[in-house]
Specification:
It is a single chain. It is built from no helices and 5 strands. The chain is mainly β. It has one domain. The protein starts with 7 loop residues before the first strand and ends with a strand. This is DUF1918 domain-containing protein. It holds the Pfam family DUF1918.
Length: 62
């Protein structure tokens, strides 16, 4: 996975009927865009994320 500040991290839910979480990547701590990322989620919370297989990155603030 590769990301840069301003990209959107989407973490898909593994539960039926539950929406995916989306947040803006505000800091990249890995080398060359690799995780972990500091993400500001749409609900206002911010945290360090090591994305799993159910996550993907969208370029820019989508």
């Amino acid at each position: 996975m590769h990301a840069q500040v301003g990209d959107t991290l989407v973490a898909e839910s593994n539960r039926t009927g539950t929406a995916a979480k989306r947040g803006e990547i505000v800091e990249v701590r890995g080398e060359d865009g690799a995780p972990p990322y500091v993400v500001k989620w749409n609900d206002g919370h911010e945290g360090l994320v090591y994305p799993g297989a159910d996550a993907h990155v969208l370029p820019g603030s989508q």
